[in-house]
């Protein structure tokens, strides 16, 4: 377990290092001069060459690129992504004032997406190839393929403005988070629904479910007590990685609803070529993705012993289910199924 954990942590750190190198290269190739941008932010609209040279020295832009990368990486590890080219303030200070609104939006969106996926996926798996399953599959497919900004425009123009089913002003509070969070949640909910449905159907076709039916377990018990818990591992993996997807989708949704979060702020930075802000958001999104992936691996190892002792369990299962003649007997299957239940 410790060896596997060490490997996962090493892979996570290597991923962050590679991502930081890519982001640094993009920062070097970005158009515009950081010194000029910061001087403009400080009110010096027409700086002379001496002022630009002094600012470049202050920012350390004249040094060796490798040394500058190491300095930038050390500062980034400590939460310092430099100064905004537009305001001249530290980037993390700009993010700190907007982070609560984004966290509020992402939290509500994640809760909505999980609730919708669990309900819809369970309903679809409970009646496969029947009309509830068909309805859920069509709805979930529509939720996946329709872009979030189109849903947001529909909500604003039809549901809010014409039908008066909400408020237009998005001030970052709990009172106005409903529609933006729902719009952000739909895409993830549709994808997670299809994953959960497939996982439950696979679990229902496993050999141990035959033992459950033979013992007289009700269909509800078969589904909720035996099938769903065994199908939760792939679902948790997708949900964990979906946390980064929700953060990645936040800029567009926040811009549509004028939500005062770091997503909308990043879109404004892209339009203004405010590179440090874009770099900081990119690194934060990558970090969230990597950390979420690592935490999900640990959670799955905690709730599923097969992942902690995978090699031993696989060898034992193979020995228990295969006879000397190379075929599997009914008694062996029954013992293996009862152990799984």
Automatic annotation (TrEMBL):
One GO BP: transmembrane transport
Source organism of the structure: Antricoccus suffuscus
Pfam families membership: BPD_transp_1, BPD_transp_1_N
Keyword Transmembrane helix belongs to the record: yes
SUPFAM superfamilies reported in the protein's UniProt record: MetI-like (SSF161098)
GO CC annotation terms, alphabetical: plasma membrane
InterPro entries: BPD_transp_1_N (IPR045621), MetI-like (IPR000515), MetI-like_sf (IPR035906)
Location relative to the cell: Cell membrane
Membrane-spanning parts: 9-30, 105-126, 138-160, 172-192, 231-257, 277-303
Membrane topology field: Multi-pass membrane protein
Domain ABC transmembrane type-1: 99-300
Protein name: Peptide/nickel transport system permease protein/nickel transport system permease protein
